Amino acid sequence: MAITGGTGLTGIFGDPVAHSASPAMHNAAYAALGMDRAYVPFHVLPAGLPAALCAITAIGLLGVNITVPHKERVARLLKNQSAEARLLGAVNCVLSRRGELFGDNTDARGLAHDLTALDAPIKGQTAILIGAGGGAAAAMLALRRLGARRVIIANRTRRRARNLAARFKGLHPEVRALEELNDPRLIGEAAVVINATPIGLGSGPFVPFGYEAARPGCFFYDLIYAAEPTSFLRPALARGLPAADGAGMLLYQGALAFELFNGVKPPLEAMRRALYARLNR
Ligand code: NAP
Question: For residues 258 and 266, is the Cβ–Cβ distance under 8 A?
Answer without folding.
Answer: yes
